[in-house]
Amino acid sequence: MNQTESRDVDDAGFDVLSFIADFRRYILLFGIIFIAVFALILVPLVTQPPKYTASASVMIDPRSVNATPGEAVVSDLPADTATIDTEVEILKSSALAERVMTDLKLEQDPEFNPYIGERKKFLGFIGSDGPAKTAATADETDARRQVIINKILKQVAIKRQGATRVINIRFTSLSPAKATNIADAWARLYLVQQREARMSTTRDASNWLDSRLTELRSQVETAERAVQQYKIANNLMSSQGATLTEQEISNLNTQMASVRLDEAAAAARLATARRQLATGSSGDDVGEALNSGVVHSLRTQSAEVSRKVAELESRYGPRHPEILKAKREKEDIDKQIRDEISRIISNLEAQVQVQRQRRSALDQSVNETRGTLAGNNRAQVRLDELERDAMAARTIYNSYLERFKETSSQEGNNRADARIVATAKRPTTPSEPRIPLAIALAFCGALGAATTVVMSRRALDRTITTSGEVELHLAQPYLAGLPLLNTSLDKAAARMDPSQYLIEKPLSVFAEGFRSLKTSLIYGRSGERAQVIAVTSALPGEGKTTASICLAQVIAMAGQSVVVVDCDLRRKSLNKFIGHKVEQGLLEVLAGMATIDDVVVDGPGGKVKLLPLAQDTDTTKDVFGSLVMDYLIHRLRRRYDIVILDTAPVLPVVDTRVLARKADVVAMLVRWRKTPREAARSALQILIDSQAPLSGVALSQIDVHKQAKYAYGEGAFYYEEYKDYYMQ
C-alpha cells in the first residue's frame, strides 16, 4: 500500500474511500431505507397524544431521633452511594407500584388497564356494561394485574439527583392532575413502606425475643434446679455463704477449744488440790473448798461450836456432858467438812474426766465432719460448674429480657429513613411528544438502519466493481475497463455493432477502453512485445468474444495486421460476425484438410481477419495440445502482427488450460458486477497452476455512468467531468 492509500485508511483499518464509494453505490437504497425508517419512527412519535410529567423529591435522611432508651432494633440507613442506589431500586420495585395502584385505584383507569374495554369483570373491581362471559382464573388475574403494574412502571422515572441524597420521582400521564397525584402518592407510600418495614422488623424481633426468653427461662430454671438438687444430694446446703458442714466444723472447733480450756482448768485445779493434800493439808485451803458455800457454812458452824466448847470449858470441867456434847457436835461438823472436801476433790476428778470425755467426743465429731467436708469439697467442683452454668443462663436471660423490654418500647416509635423535600407541582405544558427529540431519534434510527442495510448489501456483494477490488481481491494487475456499449452512447445508437462503432467513433470512451487493453497487453510485459494474446474468462457470457473482436479492431485501426482465432470448440462465437455459413475452419486446418488461406475470412470493417470454426464439425481430440497447433500458431505469428486467441471459459472447459501456455500473454475478463469473486479467483488459480503467462484482469461490460458512483478516488469516478472529452 502506497502513502496515498495509507492516508485513506485509518488506524483501525477503515477504508474511507471504499466507504464513500459504497455510499455512492447504494445511495438509492440508502435513501429509500432512510426515508421509510425515518417516517416509521417519526410519525408515531409526533402523533401520540400529549403527556404531562410531574416530579416529587425525597431525601434519604441519616439523622435519627431516638426517644426510647437503648439501641434501635433497625439501624438508620447510612448515607453512602450504595445505600442510596439501593433505595432508588426499591422505588422502582413492583411492590411499591402495586401499592400505588391499589391506593389510587389505578386498576380502574383505562390509561393503565387495557382490559377495561373487554366486556368481563377483572379482579373484582373492573365493571362492564354486560355480564361477564367467563370468570378469569387466578393465573389470568395475576397476569393481568402484573400487566397493569408494568404499565405503571413504564411511566415512572426514578433517578438520583447527582451525588446528593435526593431522589427524584417523575411520573408521566395523559392528565397533569393524575401525574401530580401519582408522583406525590409514590413518594408518600415509599415513606409508609419504610415505616411499615421498620415496624415489621421490630415486631418480628420482639416476637423472636419473646420466644427466646421462654426458652432461656426454661434453661435458667433447669440449671438452678440442677444446682439445688445437687446440693441436697451431696449435703452442700449453705447458710450465710458457707456450707452447713463448714459451719458445723467451725462450731466443733470452737467447742473443742473451749473443752480443752475447761479440761486444762479442771486438771490444774485437781493437781493443785492433790499437791496441797500431799503436803499434809486437811483440804481446808483447797481452792474449791474455799469457794464452797457448804464448806464455808460448816466452817462457820465449826467455829461457833468451838467457841461454845471454849466457853463451856471455862465454866465446866472437861467431862461435862455439855462440853462432851459440844465436842461431839464439833467433831461431827469437822467430819462433814472433811467429807465435803473429799467430795470436792472427787468432784474435781469427775470434772477432769468429763472434760476428757467431751474432748474425745468432739475429736471424733471433728474427724467425722472433716471427712464429710473432704467429700463436700470434691462435690463442690461439680457444684461450681453447675452454678456457673446457672449463672451464665441467668445472665443471658437477663440480657434478653432487657432487650425485649427495649424492643417492646420501640414498636410504636418507628420513623422512615427518608423525608419528602418537594411535592409534585401540576405541570402546565406537555412533556411529550418532544418534536426535536423525535426528529433526532428518527434521524439516528433511519441513519443506522439505512447504514446497516447498505453495509449488509455491501457484505453480500461478492462481485468485482473497481480496479482497486481487482488488485485487492484477485491479486492481479488491472488491465483495463471495457464499457458496455449501450451505456456510452444514446439509445438510438445502442443497436450498432460494437466493432462497427469503433470504426465510426474511434475517439469514444468505448474505443478508449480497448486501446487501454491493447496497451496493457502488448506493451505491458517488461522488455518484450506480446504477439499472441489469449483472451479468456471464468464463466460463459462475460463478453470475451466481443472483447476479442473489438481489441482486434483497435489494433487493426492502428495499422497492424491482426487475426482472431476461435478456440471455443463448443460455442463457435466468431461465426456471428461472419455473414455466411462457415464450411471450413480451424479444425480442418489442423487436420490438413484446408489451408489458412482457405479458412481465414474478413471480419467487421474488412481490416480484422477471423479464423473461425466450421459450424458442422466437432472433435474429441486434444487438438490444442498437439504439435500441429504449435505449428499453426508459429505460422500465424509470421503472417500477422498480432494473434488473438478467443478461448473457452476456464472453469467449465479444460482446453484453455492447455492453450493459454502457448500465448505470450493471457488476459482474463471479469464481468463487471456479475462474476463472483470466488469464480474469478478459482479461474485465475487454474491459469497460474497451468503456468500460463497471465498478464492481468480486465473488467468487461461496465456501465460507465454507474461506475462513476463506485470508483471513488479512481479515474472512472470523474467520468462525468471528462465524458465530453470523448466523441460519442
From TrEMBL:
Stretches assigned to the Polysaccharide chain length determinant N-terminal domain: 23-104
Membrane topology: Multi-pass membrane protein
Enzyme Commission number(s) of this protein: 2.7.10.2
SUPFAM superfamilies hit by this protein: P-loop containing nucleoside triphosphate hydrolases
Source superkingdom: Bacteria
Signal peptide: none
Coiled coil: 295-403
InterPro entries in the cross-refs: AAA_dom, Bact_polysacc_biosynth/exp, GNVR, LPS_length_determ_N, P-loop_NTPase, Wzc-like_C
Name of the molecule in the record: non-specific protein-tyrosine kinase
The species this protein was found in: Asticcacaulis machinosus
